[in-house]
Amino acid sequence: MIPPKPKARADKVSLWRYLKLFREDILSAQPARLYRAWMAEFKTPFFRSYLCNDPELVRQVLKERPDDFPKSDRIGAGLRPLLGNSVFLTNGETWKRQRRIIDPAFEGGRLRDTYPAMWEAGEAAVARLSAHADGTPIEIEAETSHAAADVIFRTLFSIPIEHATASAVFSEFKAHQRSQPILNLAAFIRGPKWMPRFFSAETKRTAGVIRKLIGDLTTERLAAIEAGTAPDDLATKIMTTTDPETGDQFDVDEMIDQVAIFFLAGHETSASALAWTLYLMATNPEWQARVAVEAGELSSDFSSVSRLKLSRDVFREALRLYPPVPMMVRETTCPETFRGRDVKTGSQIVLSPWHLHRHERIWERPDEFDPTRWGTENGKQCQRDSYIPFSAGSRVCTGAGFAMVEGPMLLSLILRNFIIEPDENREPVPVVHLTVRSSQGIWLRLRKRG
To answer: Of 108-117, 124-133, 175-184, 383-392, where does mean pLDDT reach its minimum?
Structure first.
């Protein structure tokens, strides 16, 4: 069985038809040829962009010359209301300073420290799912969102999702996530400042509420740090870390920006990845059974995570098929030549994990679910050159290691407690909201495992 994939648009459509399709869903607005193209050029009266699938170009942009290809300022057109001046949107020296303060909190040794909070969130998720384990279909994206948000609040602020402020942030975020895509037309169209930014009043309202709630948590934590009563969690680590070059620390406004992206990156992307992984397990019962057996090795001891080889391969394969962030946009700062074509300064360079991970000339059986591929020569080569669910190079996601502990751990806990089956009447259709989600949710049936 081939996992669900959006139907591609016709190869040639009018500009206005393309813009309409783009507004509805980024993935289905793209032609099928992008799954075979090494590079594709898009010309319109408004913008020129180049989608790059050539692994050499991807390496050049992300790893070899990242300073020459900064994130497009227009990416912030849709995300700025929530993320402000966070590390996800900044470039240059501002970004480098932010990473120097943030990165120490996510170093290898900190994963061991945060694991008990992850484990508690996982046990809480199993307890909630037990109430639905009667075979009645449930929408699993809502459950994985709850679990991922719980992980973030426990590891960041040492509070469970049931805490009043955490619960309020989670509630507002559910409204926010459906109102604003991570990429919108403003990311591609250069125009005057008065040009509409294509986000709604609801996007701005929910972003404002979320930022106010995060600000309350941040202010409370600063007071606890000054009083010497703050817990040793990620928020305390980040707020007490100084830039080794300048000696600066984040102030409250800067911390709000960073917490907002931690919540978006650590909650929304993790929820998407786990939901699609569970769907793949439901539709591949032989793999589900194998992961469930392996899950018996998992415990509250952090060292047990290293024994989850099958679970990691399954989760890695889900990230290949359904990368939470399907496209990244960079901008040229000087004239370039890509595959013999002249690329002007200010052009948009689109790197698409969605197309790169399913590229027909790179991967063997690209649309198939096959966790064993990571042990093949093709899989190993592709993982090095053509697999970027967390981006790559200096801008690789700070929380990549965190996610690769959290995802397999939650997957294992769920599968050792429940047998999951698909709802045959509702096949999910991938679309892009803030991340790759299903247009009508992902519906599964859960039964307690004997």
So the answer is: 175-184
The predicted structure's pLDDT at residue 373:
98
> Which amino acid, 198?
F
Task: Report, in angstroms and rounded to the nearest whole number, the Rg of the chain calculated over CA atoms.
Answer: 21
Look up residue 218 and give its two tokens.
């941040």
Burial class (CB in 10 A: 0-12, 13-18, 19+), 230: buried
Residue 190 has pLDDT above 60, yes or no: no
Q: Which residues, at least 6 apart from 327, have a Cβ–Cβ distance to it below 8 Å?
A: 26, 183, 350, 351, 352, 353, 354
Exposed / middle / buried, residue 243 (Cβ in 10 Å: 0-12, 13-18, 19+): middle
Task: Note whether 81 and 199 are within 8 A (CB).
Answer: yes
CA pair distance 291, 312, nearest whole angstrom:
10
Which of 326, 336, 382 is closest to 50 using CA atoms?
336
Q: How far apart are CA 79 and CA 264, in angstroms?
A: 10
Cα gap 352→323, rounded to integer Å: 9
HSE-up of 128 (CA within 13 Å, CB side)? 17
Q: Three-state SS for 420? A: strand
pLDDT above 90 for 353: yes
pLDDT digits (tens, 9 = 90+) for 38-90: 999 987 766 778 999 999 999 999 999 999 999 987 666 667 888 889 998 89
Which residues fall within 8 angstroms of residue 370, CB to CB, at 6 or more apart? Answer: 317
First to last CA, the chain: 27
* pLDDT averaged over every residue in the chain: 90
- CA dihedral over 297, 301, 306, 312, signed as positive or negative: positive
Q: What's the confidence (pLDDT) of residue 196?
A: 47
User: For residue 291, what are its two tokens?
Assistant: 């992961």
pLDDT at 332: 95
